[in-house]
Design goal:
- By secondary structure, this protein is α/β, with parallel strands linked by helices.
- The protein has one domain: Rossmann fold, CATH 3.40.50.
- The protein has six helices and six strands; from the N terminus they run E-H-E-H-E-H-E-E-E-H-H-H.
- A six-stranded mixed beta sheet has the order 1-5-6-4-2-3.
- It is globular.
- InterPro entries: Pept_HybD-like_dom_sf, YyaC.
- This is Spore protease YyaC.
- Keywords: Hydrolase, Protease.
- Pfam families: DUF1256 (PF06866).
Amino acid sequence: MLNKTVIDCSFPNVISKMRDILCKEIYSAMRKNREIVILCIGTDRSTGDSLGPLVGEKLKFLVREKVHLYGDLKNPVHAKNLPDIILQINNTYENPYVIAIDACLGKLDNIGNIIIDSRPLRPGSAMNKDLPTIGDLSITGIVNMCGALEFMVLQNTRLYTVMKLADYISKGLYHSILKTVGGKNHLIYKTEKISKTN
């Protein structure tokens, strides 16, 4: 099980570091034949809370056999529909491996960093919202500083910070899925290759 890992995005090789961390976790889930569900939480109505939908938008093309995605700019997963989405996931897949992604607030010197942890995400905790926890693995991007008036802090978060985090997270996930699950045509290619040799 992965311990809480903070990735400083000011250092080089952020994407490859993310890929290597995520690959170990996804490999373990794949060995147990678990479906991979990427759950991107947030809303495009708030700059600071738009990290999840932006990651989902960047990863829409990643959906393939064994990999599923919930939450993008068109269909965001937010406080109002999260319980229903969780119920839908649990009713659709048997023991899925859920990777939950969300924005969070933190210390000033940690803004722009990414946290990866092998424990469920607590969405809306910065806003004191009572939402269900979700995820076997959580990925959070620190978009701004915590403190008073969190709602205003999220509304006044720099889009540049959120976009940069969304880019790192989506690329890290993309490369880890390619390395563990393979491309969309990976399974088809293997089947065709086997049938031609027989």
